[in-house]
Amino acid sequence: MPIQYIDELNIENARVFIRCDFNVPLKDGHITNDLRIKASIPTIEYAQSKNAKVILASHLGRPKGKIDKTLSLEPIAERLLIYLKREVFFSNDCQAYGNLKLIEQMRPQDVLLFENLRFHPGETNNSHHFALQLSKYADVYVNDAFGAAHRAHASVEALPKLFSEKGGGLLLKKEIQALTALIENRTPPYVVVLGGGKVSDKVSLLRQIIDVADTLLLGGAMAYPFLKAQGFEVGNSKLEEEAVDIAHDLLQEAKKKKIQIILPRDHWVAKRCDVDAEVEKTPSPAIPKGWMGLDIGPKTILQYAQILEKAKTIFWNGPMGIFEVAPFEQGTFAIAEAIANNNGYTVVGGGDSVAAVYKYQLQLKFSHVSTGGGASLEFLQGTPLPGILALEG
Ligand code: ADP
Ligand code: MG
After folding, report:
1. Which-ligand-closest: CA of 197?
2. Are residues 266 and 365 in the same domain?
3. Most ligand 1 atoms within 8 A of CB, residue of 192, 234, 322 to mutate
4. Which one, 21, 224, 264, 385, has least CB within 10 Å?
5. Whose Cα sits closest to atom 24 in ligand 1?
6. Which pLDDT belongs to residue 84?
7. Does residue 352's CB lie within 6 angstroms of at least one atom of ligand 1?
8. Residue stretches of the chain with pLDDT short of 50
9. What is the pLDDT of residue 199?
């Protein structure tokens, strides 16, 4: 059975548990980007409009089953207060004895946020016992945590199985629709831009992409195994040796399928990745011995921008260089801008790529900015996501 969404569920005056994705980047206890919090507001407000008691839960970071005050959700409660314009109750422990009583005393439209679910090992262990405890707090289960939907964790998988009234939130719906459009109704030419650092994580996505995309543009550390497979020197650039053989096979496969895989033709290189490092531009795709590739070069930027201009559908994941360090951000900035200026259907996904889009304030110029990193990649790959499967039937 296809999944239902919150606007199809019977939540009037009910206790509604909403699994959100409040896994936001923090620096010294401050939220540096609250896209995920903002994105959860429509679902919370919808539940309030139906006079529900709203119970929110999320993970944050990787506390490994122990209390870690630096990963507390308290700053999230403060931010929610600003967006919801009402006080948010906070419970220090999602398994505390007093929670049931507290929920009983809540009035319709009141909002309660639980402390980080991952302070308990049961969350990542997908513990039935942990889920059973949580299930007592609510009548209806809603998953709005698209960014966590690829994890078989208790609040995402074991918990919804304990509810008969369950469904996705409005953010989950928006994400699924936006990414499904990339799979089902794209207008050619479809250009995929892949960069970033986690090469081995993304190789399976590449396999799927060469079946559907017209052109694949590679940058960041993603490019080096491909350059190496073509016989170029890559110096001290970040390289996963196991990826070289895979890159070799993918290049062959792409040739057969007449898909273009385009690699950087020049790079910005340095001996170390530092703001004041000596930076050189290579004249060709090769990176000299002793140097590291840290960004795509100007000839590459020009070529990629021309291809992106003609695209009708674009998916982008992974920065083109170490954009966090100023001398190496030109490639990422230029690609973000080229995609933002395209009037076709444009989607960006991935924690760091989305951070880059926000850094350059281009978020409103994309058709869809996905709140999911790993989840959006797995969804595009066609992998069934445990959090979505658990809402079916
Ligand atoms: P996303 O989070 O968007 O999916 P990744 O996590 O795969 O992207 O990769 C992001 C990281 O890749 C960034 O922190 C960036 O510094 C790094 N990166 C980009 N280009 C290079 C490069 N040439 N060498 C090493 N790391 C790189
Ligand atoms: Mg990342």
Report:
1. 1
2. yes
3. 322
4. 385
5. 221
6. 97
7. yes
8. none
9. 79
351 is catalytic: yes
* Residue 167, ligand 1, Cβ within 6 A: no
Q: Same structural domain for residues 348 and 245? A: yes
Given this model, what pLDDT does residue 209 score? Answer: 85
State the pLDDT at residue 121. 98
Secondary structure, 3-state, 190-217: EEEEECCCCHHHHHHHHHHHHHHCCEEE
Q: Are 28 and 96 found together in one domain?
A: yes
* Active-site pick, 53, 118, 198, 228: 198
Same domain assignment for residues 210 and 277: yes
In a domain, 131, yes or no: yes
User: How confident is the model at residue 135, as a pLDDT?
Assistant: 98
Q: Ligand 1 in contact with 349 (CB < 6 A)?
A: no
Is 374 a known active-site residue?
yes
Range of the domain at 147: 6-173
Alpha helices in the chain (DSSP H): 35-49, 74-84, 99-105, 121-124, 128-135, 170-184, 199-212, 223-229, 242-257, 298-310, 330-340, 351-359, 374-381, 386-389
Which atom of ligand 1 lies nearest, measured to the CA of 319? 19
**119 vs 289: CA distance, rounded Å:** 46
How many folded domains does the chain comprise?
2
